Amino acid sequence: MTIREIANITGLSTATVHRALRKPENSKPEIIKQINTILEQNIVENIGLKKIYIVLPHINEFYTKLMVDLITIFNKHFIQIVPFITHEDKQSEYNFISSIPFSSKIGLIWVPTDTEHAYSFLNRQKNKPVVIFFNRKLTHHTPHSGVFLDNHGAVAIAVEELVKNKHSKLLFINGDLNLQTAISREEGFLFAIQKYSGIESKIINANFHEWRSAYQNIIEHKDIITNYDAIISGNELLTYGILKGLKELQLNIPQDICFIGIDNSFSIESQDLSTIYFSTQQISDQISRIFLDHTHNSQTNSIYYITARLSLRGSEKNSL
User: Fold this and answer.
1) Are 262 and 117 in contact (CB under 8 A)?
2) Domains of the chain, CATH where assigned
Protein backbone atom coordinates (compact mmCIF):
# COMPACT_ATOMS: atom_id res chain seq x y z
CA MET A 1 0.00 0.00 0.00
CA THR A 2 1.43 3.37 -1.00
CA ILE A 3 1.51 6.58 1.04
CA ARG A 4 -0.92 8.18 -1.41
CA GLU A 5 -3.39 5.29 -1.01
CA ILE A 6 -3.23 5.61 2.79
CA ALA A 7 -3.75 9.37 2.50
CA ASN A 8 -6.78 8.93 0.24
CA ILE A 9 -8.42 6.45 2.63
CA THR A 10 -7.69 8.37 5.83
CA GLY A 11 -8.18 11.88 4.47
CA LEU A 12 -4.72 12.87 5.71
CA SER A 13 -2.17 14.65 3.56
CA THR A 14 0.61 12.59 2.00
CA ALA A 15 3.13 14.66 3.99
CA THR A 16 1.38 13.78 7.26
CA VAL A 17 1.31 10.07 6.39
CA HIS A 18 4.96 10.11 5.33
CA ARG A 19 5.98 11.85 8.55
CA ALA A 20 3.95 9.47 10.69
CA LEU A 21 5.49 6.39 9.06
CA ARG A 22 9.01 7.75 9.16
CA LYS A 23 8.98 9.27 12.67
CA PRO A 24 5.87 8.04 14.54
CA GLU A 25 7.16 9.49 17.81
CA ASN A 26 6.66 12.98 16.36
CA SER A 27 3.05 12.38 15.28
CA LYS A 28 -0.19 12.48 17.23
CA PRO A 29 -1.27 9.09 18.69
CA GLU A 30 -4.67 9.31 16.97
CA ILE A 31 -2.97 9.71 13.57
CA ILE A 32 -0.71 6.70 14.21
CA LYS A 33 -3.73 4.65 15.30
CA GLN A 34 -5.66 5.66 12.20
CA ILE A 35 -2.82 4.69 9.86
CA ASN A 36 -2.13 1.41 11.71
CA THR A 37 -5.80 0.45 11.39
CA ILE A 38 -5.65 0.90 7.62
CA LEU A 39 -2.37 -1.02 7.35
CA GLU A 40 -3.69 -3.88 9.51
CA GLN A 41 -6.84 -4.07 7.41
CA ASN A 42 -4.74 -4.13 4.24
CA ILE A 43 -2.59 -6.94 5.63
CA VAL A 44 -5.52 -9.23 6.29
CA GLU A 45 -7.59 -8.37 3.22
CA ASN A 46 -4.63 -8.96 0.89
CA ILE A 47 -4.06 -12.41 2.29
CA GLY A 48 -7.26 -13.74 0.77
CA LEU A 49 -7.67 -16.24 3.59
CA LYS A 50 -11.11 -17.51 4.47
CA LYS A 51 -10.30 -19.57 7.53
CA ILE A 52 -7.41 -20.00 9.98
CA TYR A 53 -7.06 -23.11 12.13
CA ILE A 54 -5.21 -22.76 15.44
CA VAL A 55 -4.00 -26.10 16.79
CA LEU A 56 -2.66 -25.95 20.35
CA PRO A 57 -1.41 -28.70 22.68
CA HIS A 58 -3.28 -27.49 25.78
CA ILE A 59 -5.09 -24.49 27.13
CA ASN A 60 -3.81 -22.13 29.80
CA GLU A 61 -3.85 -18.38 30.41
CA PHE A 62 -1.06 -17.75 27.89
CA TYR A 63 -2.69 -19.70 25.05
CA THR A 64 -6.09 -18.21 25.89
CA LYS A 65 -4.69 -14.68 25.64
CA LEU A 66 -2.89 -15.58 22.40
CA MET A 67 -6.12 -16.87 20.84
CA VAL A 68 -8.01 -13.74 21.91
CA ASP A 69 -5.33 -11.52 20.33
CA LEU A 70 -5.37 -13.53 17.10
CA ILE A 71 -9.16 -13.50 16.96
CA THR A 72 -9.14 -9.73 17.50
CA ILE A 73 -6.85 -9.29 14.48
CA PHE A 74 -8.55 -11.68 12.07
CA ASN A 75 -12.23 -11.98 12.97
CA LYS A 76 -13.00 -8.30 12.48
CA HIS A 77 -12.04 -8.87 8.84
CA PHE A 78 -14.47 -11.79 8.55
CA ILE A 79 -11.79 -14.48 8.60
CA GLN A 80 -13.09 -17.44 10.55
CA ILE A 81 -10.90 -18.74 13.37
CA VAL A 82 -11.17 -22.42 14.28
CA PRO A 83 -9.27 -23.40 17.45
CA PHE A 84 -8.53 -27.00 18.41
CA ILE A 85 -6.84 -28.33 21.56
CA THR A 86 -5.01 -31.65 21.12
CA HIS A 87 -4.25 -32.19 24.84
CA GLU A 88 -0.95 -33.67 23.63
CA ASP A 89 -2.85 -36.59 22.10
CA LYS A 90 -1.23 -37.69 18.83
CA GLN A 91 -4.27 -39.52 17.47
CA SER A 92 -6.53 -36.58 18.24
CA GLU A 93 -4.11 -34.27 16.46
CA TYR A 94 -3.88 -36.57 13.43
CA ASN A 95 -7.66 -36.89 13.14
CA PHE A 96 -8.23 -33.15 13.29
CA ILE A 97 -5.37 -32.18 10.95
CA SER A 98 -6.53 -34.80 8.45
CA SER A 99 -10.04 -33.31 8.44
CA ILE A 100 -8.89 -29.82 7.39
CA PRO A 101 -9.71 -29.03 3.71
CA PHE A 102 -6.34 -27.46 2.96
CA SER A 103 -6.02 -24.92 0.14
CA SER A 104 -4.39 -21.55 -0.50
CA LYS A 105 -7.38 -19.98 1.30
CA ILE A 106 -6.61 -21.89 4.50
CA GLY A 107 -4.14 -20.83 7.20
CA LEU A 108 -2.76 -22.98 9.99
CA ILE A 109 -1.08 -21.86 13.21
CA TRP A 110 0.24 -25.06 14.73
CA VAL A 111 1.98 -26.27 17.88
CA PRO A 112 2.65 -29.92 16.90
CA THR A 113 2.08 -32.70 19.41
CA ASP A 114 3.36 -35.47 17.12
CA THR A 115 6.60 -33.98 15.78
CA GLU A 116 7.50 -37.17 13.89
CA HIS A 117 4.46 -37.47 11.65
CA ALA A 118 4.92 -36.59 7.97
CA TYR A 119 1.75 -34.83 6.83
CA SER A 120 1.35 -34.81 3.05
CA PHE A 121 -0.17 -31.32 2.82
CA LEU A 122 3.16 -29.84 3.94
CA ASN A 123 4.77 -30.98 0.69
CA ARG A 124 2.26 -29.42 -1.69
CA GLN A 125 3.67 -27.36 -4.54
CA LYS A 126 0.32 -25.95 -5.69
CA ASN A 127 -2.70 -24.63 -3.79
CA LYS A 128 -0.58 -24.60 -0.64
CA PRO A 129 -1.98 -23.50 2.72
CA VAL A 130 -0.08 -20.92 4.78
CA VAL A 131 1.41 -22.89 7.68
CA ILE A 132 3.03 -21.28 10.70
CA PHE A 133 4.69 -23.50 13.29
CA PHE A 134 4.50 -22.00 16.77
CA ASN A 135 7.16 -22.95 19.34
CA ARG A 136 7.55 -26.50 18.01
CA LYS A 137 8.32 -27.90 14.59
CA LEU A 138 8.19 -31.28 12.92
CA THR A 139 11.33 -33.36 12.68
CA HIS A 140 10.76 -33.97 8.96
CA HIS A 141 8.92 -31.37 6.90
CA THR A 142 9.37 -29.00 4.00
CA PRO A 143 10.29 -25.43 4.97
CA HIS A 144 7.50 -23.35 6.47
CA SER A 145 7.46 -20.24 8.60
CA GLY A 146 7.88 -20.52 12.34
CA VAL A 147 7.48 -18.31 15.40
CA PHE A 148 9.45 -19.55 18.39
CA LEU A 149 9.80 -18.27 21.94
CA ASP A 150 13.32 -17.78 23.24
CA ASN A 151 12.75 -19.99 26.28
CA HIS A 152 16.50 -20.46 26.68
CA GLY A 153 17.05 -16.74 27.04
CA ALA A 154 13.98 -16.23 29.27
CA VAL A 155 15.38 -18.32 32.12
CA ALA A 156 18.81 -16.75 31.66
CA ILE A 157 17.19 -13.35 32.29
CA ALA A 158 15.68 -14.66 35.53
CA VAL A 159 19.03 -16.02 36.72
CA GLU A 160 20.81 -12.78 35.84
CA GLU A 161 18.27 -10.71 37.76
CA LEU A 162 18.50 -12.88 40.88
CA VAL A 163 22.30 -12.91 40.85
CA LYS A 164 22.25 -9.13 40.45
CA ASN A 165 20.20 -9.01 43.65
CA LYS A 166 22.89 -10.97 45.53
CA HIS A 167 21.18 -14.38 45.46
CA SER A 168 23.63 -17.29 45.29
CA LYS A 169 21.40 -20.32 45.95
CA LEU A 170 18.86 -20.79 43.19
CA LEU A 171 16.15 -23.45 42.95
CA PHE A 172 14.56 -23.97 39.53
CA ILE A 173 11.24 -25.83 39.43
CA ASN A 174 10.75 -26.75 35.78
CA GLY A 175 8.49 -28.98 33.67
CA ASP A 176 9.13 -32.61 32.74
CA LEU A 177 11.77 -33.02 30.04
CA ASN A 178 9.36 -34.66 27.60
CA LEU A 179 8.48 -31.21 26.25
CA GLN A 180 10.78 -29.02 24.18
CA THR A 181 9.77 -25.94 26.16
CA ALA A 182 10.95 -27.51 29.42
CA ILE A 183 14.16 -28.73 27.77
CA SER A 184 14.96 -25.25 26.43
CA ARG A 185 14.22 -23.60 29.76
CA GLU A 186 16.41 -26.06 31.63
CA GLU A 187 19.24 -25.55 29.14
CA GLY A 188 18.89 -21.80 29.62
CA PHE A 189 19.12 -22.18 33.39
CA LEU A 190 22.24 -24.37 33.26
CA PHE A 191 23.91 -22.10 30.70
CA ALA A 192 23.24 -19.01 32.82
CA ILE A 193 24.49 -20.64 36.04
CA GLN A 194 27.82 -21.46 34.38
CA LYS A 195 28.49 -17.76 33.86
CA TYR A 196 28.76 -17.13 37.58
CA SER A 197 31.10 -18.55 40.20
CA GLY A 198 29.94 -19.54 43.66
CA ILE A 199 26.33 -20.16 42.65
CA GLU A 200 24.61 -23.17 44.20
CA SER A 201 21.69 -24.48 42.18
CA LYS A 202 19.20 -27.30 41.96
CA ILE A 203 16.56 -28.32 39.40
CA ILE A 204 13.31 -30.06 40.34
CA ASN A 205 11.09 -31.32 37.52
CA ALA A 206 7.30 -31.24 37.78
CA ASN A 207 4.37 -31.39 35.34
CA PHE A 208 3.95 -28.21 33.27
CA HIS A 209 0.20 -28.85 32.96
CA GLU A 210 -0.57 -29.60 36.60
CA TRP A 211 -0.07 -27.12 39.45
CA ARG A 212 -0.39 -29.90 42.04
CA SER A 213 2.87 -31.44 40.84
CA ALA A 214 4.80 -28.32 41.86
CA TYR A 215 2.96 -28.19 45.19
CA GLN A 216 3.83 -31.83 45.88
CA ASN A 217 7.48 -31.19 45.00
CA ILE A 218 7.64 -28.27 47.43
CA ILE A 219 6.19 -30.40 50.23
CA GLU A 220 8.39 -33.42 49.41
CA HIS A 221 11.52 -31.25 49.37
CA LYS A 222 10.55 -29.08 52.35
CA ASP A 223 13.77 -29.99 54.17
CA ILE A 224 15.92 -28.44 51.45
CA ILE A 225 13.72 -25.49 50.41
CA THR A 226 15.13 -23.29 53.17
CA ASN A 227 18.66 -23.94 51.85
CA TYR A 228 17.85 -21.74 48.84
CA ASP A 229 17.33 -18.00 48.81
CA ALA A 230 15.39 -17.77 45.52
CA ILE A 231 13.05 -19.85 43.36
CA ILE A 232 12.49 -19.69 39.61
CA SER A 233 9.21 -21.19 38.42
CA GLY A 234 9.05 -22.84 34.97
CA ASN A 235 5.56 -21.59 34.09
CA GLU A 236 2.46 -19.99 35.61
CA LEU A 237 0.74 -23.26 36.58
CA LEU A 238 3.82 -24.36 38.49
CA THR A 239 3.83 -20.95 40.17
CA TYR A 240 0.38 -21.60 41.65
CA GLY A 241 1.55 -24.90 43.12
CA ILE A 242 4.75 -23.33 44.46
CA LEU A 243 2.80 -20.56 46.18
CA LYS A 244 0.47 -23.06 47.84
CA GLY A 245 3.43 -25.15 49.02
CA LEU A 246 5.32 -22.16 50.42
CA LYS A 247 2.21 -20.99 52.24
CA GLU A 248 1.81 -24.40 53.85
CA LEU A 249 5.46 -24.29 54.93
CA GLN A 250 4.86 -20.76 56.28
CA LEU A 251 7.51 -19.28 53.97
CA ASN A 252 6.79 -15.77 52.73
CA ILE A 253 7.92 -14.04 49.53
CA PRO A 254 10.26 -12.16 49.57
CA GLN A 255 10.92 -12.12 53.33
CA ASP A 256 11.91 -15.80 53.55
CA ILE A 257 12.60 -16.67 49.94
CA CYS A 258 12.65 -14.60 46.74
CA PHE A 259 10.89 -15.50 43.53
CA ILE A 260 10.77 -14.99 39.74
CA GLY A 261 8.33 -16.87 37.53
CA ILE A 262 8.30 -17.61 33.81
CA ASP A 263 4.98 -16.63 32.15
CA ASN A 264 2.58 -14.02 33.41
CA SER A 265 -1.03 -14.02 34.61
CA PHE A 266 -3.44 -11.58 36.21
CA SER A 267 -3.35 -13.43 39.53
CA ILE A 268 0.46 -13.40 39.52
CA GLU A 269 0.43 -9.65 38.88
CA SER A 270 -2.04 -9.10 41.73
CA GLN A 271 0.37 -10.80 44.13
CA ASP A 272 3.28 -8.60 43.03
CA LEU A 273 5.33 -11.54 41.76
CA SER A 274 8.12 -10.76 39.29
CA THR A 275 7.88 -12.54 35.97
CA ILE A 276 9.67 -13.14 32.69
CA TYR A 277 6.99 -13.32 30.02
CA PHE A 278 6.29 -13.32 26.29
CA SER A 279 3.91 -10.73 24.85
CA THR A 280 0.99 -12.41 23.10
CA GLN A 281 0.31 -9.15 21.28
CA GLN A 282 3.85 -9.16 19.87
CA ILE A 283 3.43 -12.79 18.81
CA SER A 284 0.07 -12.06 17.16
CA ASP A 285 1.51 -9.07 15.30
CA GLN A 286 4.39 -11.19 14.02
CA ILE A 287 2.03 -13.92 12.85
CA SER A 288 -0.07 -11.40 10.90
CA ARG A 289 3.10 -10.07 9.23
CA ILE A 290 4.08 -13.59 8.18
CA PHE A 291 0.73 -14.05 6.46
CA LEU A 292 1.33 -10.77 4.60
CA ASP A 293 4.79 -11.91 3.47
CA HIS A 294 3.22 -15.04 2.00
CA THR A 295 0.79 -12.86 0.06
CA HIS A 296 3.65 -11.09 -1.69
CA ASN A 297 5.78 -14.20 -2.11
CA SER A 298 4.27 -17.66 -1.70
CA GLN A 299 7.77 -19.11 -1.34
CA THR A 300 8.64 -16.90 1.65
CA ASN A 301 9.44 -19.06 4.66
CA SER A 302 11.06 -17.41 7.64
CA ILE A 303 11.86 -18.20 11.25
CA TYR A 304 11.22 -15.58 13.93
CA TYR A 305 12.23 -15.66 17.58
CA ILE A 306 10.30 -13.76 20.23
CA THR A 307 12.42 -12.50 23.12
CA ALA A 308 11.13 -12.45 26.69
CA ARG A 309 10.19 -9.36 28.62
CA LEU A 310 10.93 -8.66 32.28
CA SER A 311 8.35 -7.39 34.74
CA LEU A 312 9.83 -6.73 38.19
CA ARG A 313 7.39 -6.30 41.07
CA GLY A 314 9.72 -6.73 44.05
CA SER A 315 9.57 -10.47 44.71
CA GLU A 316 13.12 -10.83 43.35
CA LYS A 317 14.55 -8.58 46.07
CA ASN A 318 15.23 -9.59 49.64
CA SER A 319 13.22 -7.24 51.85
CA LEU A 320 15.75 -7.40 54.69
Assistant:
1) no
2) 1-47 (no CATH), 48-142 (3.40.50.2300), 151-278 (3.40.50.2300)
